[in-house]
Write a structure and sequence with these properties.
By secondary structure, this protein is α/β, with parallel strands linked by helices. Helix content is about 35%, strand content about 20%. The strands form 6 sheets. It has a 7-stranded mixed sheet, sandwiched between helices. The radius of gyration is 25 Å and the shape is globular.
Length: about 475
């Protein structure tokens, strides 16, 4: 009777009772906001578990019928779902796959280099604190300007990253696949670089930047085909944790929470041809082992998406791996800059630093994990234009938006960017701008998920300048 009750309660939980807790992107879930729900959920579990005991006492014939029948029905339903999934899955047994690889990550060009380091979740507050603690920490950023008032378009990596690469806004009116497909078909930014002789290399992951590798065919030059070698025991362990997260009562879900990054790196390929995974420690180790190299055939555009300042915190300020719970966003941000400083040092050794264009940017600022926005959020941005090299780090309060990203890249490439807006360094500090910011709200029950559309008018470090212009229902969740 006890096992029967637990089985039925778990099925009801996984099928009907789970709340929309958002993507498992590493940000902690605000469990404290669901105490009432957790209590009601426990009471419901107790009632379901008590049901077979009551039936045994009050209706033994019904109990004898349901005890074997209900588990058989539930198992049959699950098996039918599994079979339909297997049938619908294309190329299930195919050992080869197309993917964004690590190939060429450390290969620079003797002609021109444009490097974009996307440090996930890097907020200006993190930079300000590090500057306050260690005054000379950012001294290696010679030729750079720190733009302290940069508003990202979105509050989370999707759709912030595909927006940077395509310029297409996302209002969640269609599915992720539909948005991605339309965005890359319509976009002109990456094709413009390609047409001018740039090798375009994108080091990021599927769920954040594209939904099907076909969307990047002809756009990204680090796509490879390879034989997939799965770490089956590790995958099964992680999937069992995910199953617990789905089927356990709400009060126990925190014990089964895991970031999606726990599944990264479980598909193995030969060294240098592996699918790119958000593993900053691995980047650092490989960079020191292999070093930067050069080629003369093409110019180089590289976008390197780093795990960055995002939780969970798994490296320290020396880029050493640490157990979860022993670090923080400041240590991890420092560690990311050590990786970037290693790139800078080797670029200087190769004589490529002065002519390189480099952006170090957060795809978004610190997030409030799906709750309504309660304060300003600014994404940190450091920018070194082509030709800058020796000057110490400068500071600017120009009001920058991620809308300015594509124009900035094309301007440094010497290309016509009139249709893409203005470059960052063309925007004066005394110009007041109206900037858009979209914030996804997932944890505001009983309301369904929606986007807050803010318009930032003037200086972004004053939340009074952030005006809630609209609340847009989301037709599709991420």
């Amino acid at each position: 009777s006890l096992l029967w009750g637990i089985l039925v309660a778990g099925y009801i939980q996984g099928t009907f009772l789970n709340l929309p807790l958002g993507a498992l992107d590493g940000k902690a879930i605000a469990w404290q906001t669901y105490r009432t729900h957790a209590l009601l959920n426990v009471l419901l579990w107790g009632a379901v578990i008590a049901l077979p005991f009551a039936l045994k006492s009050l209706a033994p014939r019904v109990w004898r019928l349901l005890i074997p029948l209900v588990p058989l029905v539930l198992v049959g339903m699950q098996a039918a779902g599994l079979v339909s999934t297997v049938i619908a899955t294309e190329n299930l047994s195919a050992p080869r796959a197309r993917y964004l690889s690590e190939a060429g990550m450390f290969e620079m060009s003797t002609q021109d280099n444009i490097l974009v380091f996307v440090v996930d979740c890097m907020d200006t507050r993190f930079i300000d604190q590090i500057m306050g603690e260690t005054e000379d920490f950012f001294d290696p950023l010679q030729g750079f300007t720190f733009y302290r008032d940069t508003v990202s378009m979105y509050s989370q990596t999707y759709p912030a990253l595909p927006y940077l690469l395509t310029g297409k806004e996302c209002l969640y009116e269609g599915s992720v696949d539909q948005y991605m497909r339309e965005a890359y078909v319509q976009a002109r930014f990456l094709p413009t670089l390609h047409e001018d002789g740039y090798a375009v290399k994108l080091y990021t992951q599927e769920k954040y930047t594209y939904s099907d590798i076909a969307q990047l065919e002809g756009l990204a030059d680090n796509i490879l085909s390879g034989e997939v070698q799965a770490d089956v025991p590790a995958i099964l362990r992680q999937m069992s944790v995910l199953s617990g997260f789905r089927y356990m009562p709400h009060a126990l879900k925190a014990s089964f929470w895991m970031p999606s990054s726990a599944l990264e790196g479980l598909m193995r390929m030969p060294e240098g041809k592996a699918p790119y995974a958000l593993d900053d420690h691995r980047i650092y180790q490989r960079l020191h082992k292999e070093g930067l190299t050069t080629q003369a055939e093409k110019k180089n555009f590289t976008l390197l998406h780093m795990y960055g300042s995002h939780s969970p915190f798994v490296i320290n300020d020396k880029v050493e791996k640490i157990p979860e719970g022993f670090g923080d966003e400041f240590q991890q941000t420092r560690g990311c800059f050590q990786i970037i400083y290693a790139f800078i040092s080797q670029l200087k050794d190769l004589g490529l630093y002065e002519d390189a264009t480099i952006l170090i940017m957060g795809d978004h600022g610190d997030t409030v994990r799906g709750l309504p926005l309660d304060d300003y959020r600014l994404a940190a941005l450091f920018y070194k234009p082509h030709g800058a090299a020796d000057a110490p780090l400068e500071y600017s309060d120009a009001q920058i938006s991620h809308r300015d990203f594509q124009a900035t890249i094309l301007a440094n490439a010497g290309l016509d960017y009139a249709d893409f807006g203005r470059a960052i360094d063309e925007i004066p500090e005394d110009e007041d701008r109206l900037r858009d910011y979209y914030h996804r709200v997932e944890f505001n029950p009983p309301r369904p998920i929606y986007q807050e559309h803010y318009q930032v008018e003037g200086y972004g470090e004053d939340f009074d300048h952030w005006h809630l212009a609209d609340e847009i229902p989301m037709q599709y969740n991420y």
